[in-house]
């Protein structure tokens, strides 16, 4: 066995980051499946699991934004998406309250 250090180049980091993306996508959609199951069959609240998805996605977005790897108008897009999510949550809350 050689005593040479293992060099990490751009390809190594690209493959590593791609694997994280695949893992995060599987984790997120798996969590959505659990949320659907809990909601439909067990009639349980799912805000805790949704919070995990929102916090994890938000942390990744903020990290990428700080390191300037997101496209230029990403702040406007995030604000738009948050606005739509808040509007959907308020609408859902009102519909449930009226029921």
UniProtKB/TrEMBL annotation:
- List the transmembrane segments: 20-37, 49-66, 78-98
Keyword set includes Membrane: yes
Keywords on record = Membrane, Transmembrane, Transmembrane helix
User: Could you tell me what this protein is called?
Assistant: Uncharacterized protein
Q: In which organism is this protein found?
A: Longilinea arvoryzae
